[in-house]
């Protein structure tokens, strides 16, 4: 039983680099460094030689060969030489009957470890075989040397030498190399994932920016086409120009917000009335609806509906829904978008956007609001994703009903303020 405890203790020391790696690098994006390998291997070697296995005074066994091979594989020759010096100095300090045999075994196993570590790094397809050969060699070589230098000791403690020591070295090197290699591979995959995540985030931001800027530019384009019409009055022309200037200012605000995305600030919420905001948006979207041969109808009870929100975000949110509704009707004759606004139970402002367009299937409804999902061939899905997230952040809700070929209805509920 004592031998089993000693072997298990040595196996624990063998797994020290793996354990420390998972503790130290768990929350870090970087992978291991040679400095980390040097320090952990030195600690592990010192602990294993301090609390060694032994059945005869002066003859000690530990997992020194496992640690040296591991250090050479992941730290290189420098780590191997550091461990070699550490072992020699500490083993001389410990002394005892097995000192001479230990030095002979060390010369053989160290050179073999250097060779196997080089093969391990260069021939990745044979790593399992190399690990097996290393464990087998580090189990057989000490016994063979001891049979020559300490024959009587080996014979008297045959069970320990042919069972405990091979298990200790073979199992130790297999566990350490396999588990550490798996941890390093997982970390590399994590680093690759982070890199892909950065690229994907940039792509999302670019798609979102293009989407947000396209809306005011579309409105400006529609009004500029109307201004070219000589039949409209000067007052109407000036009114359209004012709207264009307002939309260009909104574009500037959007760009400024994206430029400050790296240092987001607290949302700038203020109390605002939804009714004039909706009327302003209808003025903006009417030319776009006319371009697509779609009629816009607005119904509200004329009462004030105050909510706490960012006016620019609410404007963008409503434009997203109305623009999508208009586009859903652009391929049918007599397309119509009906917008209703009314209080709901004195707690919420209820905005209903109904269109008689192409509609959506149940599968499309389930994915609605998901990034990069869009029912349009040239859509990104970013607009509705932004809108859904904004509604949820305001403790509101959005419900949708749709039938293919008959149209879609969005019901947005936003909490009222006193």
Q: How does this structure look, described?
A:
The radius of gyration is 37 Å and the shape is rod-shaped. It is of the alpha+beta class and 418 residues long. The model is unreliable at 260-265 (pLDDT under 50). The chain starts with a helix and ends with a strand. The protein contains 14 helices and nine strands. Strands 4-6-7-9-8 form a five-stranded mixed β-sheet, with helices on one face. It has a two-stranded antiparallel ribbon with strand order 1-2. Strands 3-5 form a two-stranded antiparallel sheet. It has helices spanning 2-14, 16-24, 34-50, 64-75, 77-94, 99-122, 127-149, 151-156, 158-227, 234-259, 274-291, 311-329, 362-367, 382-393, and strands at residues 53-56, 59-61, 270-273, 294-300, 306-309, 335-344, 348-355, 397-403, 407-415.
């Amino acid at each position: 039983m004592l031998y089993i405890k000693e072997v298990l203790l040595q196996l624990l020391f063998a797994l020290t680099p793996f354990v420390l790696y998972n503790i130290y690098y768990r929350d870090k994006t970087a992978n291991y460094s040679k400095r980390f390998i040097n320090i952990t291997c030195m600690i592990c070697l010192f602990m294993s030689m301090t609390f060694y296995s032994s059945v005869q005074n002066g003859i000690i066994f530990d997992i020194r060969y496992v640690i040296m091979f591991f250090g050479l594989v992941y730290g290189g020759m420098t780590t191997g030489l550091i461990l070699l010096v550490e072992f020699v100095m500490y083993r001389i300090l410990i002394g005892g009957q097995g000192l001479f045999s230990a030095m002979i075994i060390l010369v053989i196993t160290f050179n073999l470890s250097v060779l196997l570590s080089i093969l391990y790094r260069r021939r990745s397809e044979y790593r399992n075989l190399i690990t097996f050969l290393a464990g087998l060699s580090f189990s057989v070589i000490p016994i063979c040397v001891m049979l020559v230098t300490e024959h009587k000791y080996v014979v008297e403690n045959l069970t320990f030498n042919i069972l405990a020591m091979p298990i200790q070295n073979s199992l130790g090197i297999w566990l350490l190399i396999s588990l550490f290699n798996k941890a390093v591979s997982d970390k590399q995959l994590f680093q690759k994932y982070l890199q892909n995540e950065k690229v994907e985030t940039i792509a999302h931001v670019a798609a979102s920016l293009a989407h947000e800027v396209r809306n005011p530019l579309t409105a400006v384009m529609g009004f500029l086409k109307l201004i070219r019409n000589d039949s409209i009055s000067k007052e109407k022309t000036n009114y359209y120009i004012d709207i264009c200037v307002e939309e260009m200012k909104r574009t500037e605000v959007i760009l400024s917000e994206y430029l400050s995305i790296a240092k987001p600030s607290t949302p700038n919420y203020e109390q605002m009335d939804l009714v004039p905001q909706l009327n302003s948006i209808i003025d903006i979207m009417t030319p776009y609806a006319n371009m697509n041969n779609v009629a816009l109808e607005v119904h509200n009870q004329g009462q004030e509906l105050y909510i706490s929100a960012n006016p620019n975000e609410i404007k963008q949110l409503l434009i997203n829904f109305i623009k999508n509704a208009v586009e859903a009707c652009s391929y049918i004759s007599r397309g119509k978008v009906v917008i209703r606004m009314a209080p709901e139970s004195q707690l919420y402002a209820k905005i209903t956007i109904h269109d008689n367009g192409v509609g959506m299937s149940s599968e499309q409804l389930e994915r609605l609001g998901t990034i990069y999902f869009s029912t349009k061939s040239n859509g990104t899905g970013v607009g509705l994703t932004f809108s859904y997230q904004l509604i949820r952040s305001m403790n509101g809700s959005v419900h949708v009903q749709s039938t293919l070929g008959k149209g879609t209805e969005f019901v947005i509920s936003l909490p009222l303020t006193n």
